[in-house]
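I am writing to request your help with a piece of structural work I have in hand. The matter concerns a single protein, recorded as an amino acid sequence and a row of backbone structure tokens. Could you please explain, in whatever detail you think fit, how the structure tokens follow from the sequence? Thank you for your consideration; the sequence and its tokens are set out here:
>
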Amino acid sequence: MRIGIFTGSTNDGTIDQIVAEAKAAEADGFASFWAPQIFGHDALTALAVVGREVPRIELGTSVVPTYPRHPMMMAQQALTVNAAASGRLCLGIGLSHKMVVESLWGMSFDKPVRHLREYLSVMMPLLEGQPVSFQGEAYQVMGGVSVPGSSRPSVVVAALGEQMLRVSAALADGTLTWCTGPATLRDHTVPTLRRAAEAAGRPDQRVIAALPVCVTDDVPAALARAAQTFQMYGQLPSYRAMLDLEGARGPEDIAIVGGEAEVADRIRALAGVGVTDFAAVEFGGNPDELARTRAVVKSLL
């Protein structure tokens, strides 16, 4: 199982801070460095800068929403970033959420599974350097893109429900989950993805699991902080469904919290349920907890 780290700076920090975090992650030997797309820096643009400054680590987006970006434009931007990063981009994309798409962006969230299927049907050939002639319900696209010096990035989808996992397995390279606990990964995510991938003749799927991590001597305080920090995810329907499958009250119940040995054991156990990549979201409450958390995650490399 490959081990990666999330940056906390795309939303709250500067470009220099993002680059510094990526350099530190690469120096520590992590396999991947993940940039969320929220309401701060554009993740793909930030990773293009990182790709020119930090030469070896895989760079991933987690995740770029599809609705605001036409699939041809997403392909063009991803290929450009992959050229800047010398082929190290993992393009993580997702639908976002109905309340964001409709209330913030004023767009329709109608038929999200159809949207994803059509989106990937347009974007994936373009990433392969092939022209597209596609006539769907949501997209009618004819044309191609050409980005000299680039190559097709890996593409993973923030797919949680069964239908989304099936589309991802058929058309993309895997899934990237958040707020999805180990029992749900074992019983729902991994078997659904594998069955669909085998049916589509695409067996080599990545399962990238992102979870909050904190090494601490004060577990109750850390869990309370997780409940507050990640509260909104427990209220979004797609994540709420995964928490319900896990039997979790909220994100605090799937956070990996405890002493060094417990945290290390819980992360290692994810490999046994079929996770190919683990991405740690560190949330220590003080410099000591942050340092201890990083040391434990690093020890698993």
User: Anything to note?
Assistant: The mean pLDDT is 96.
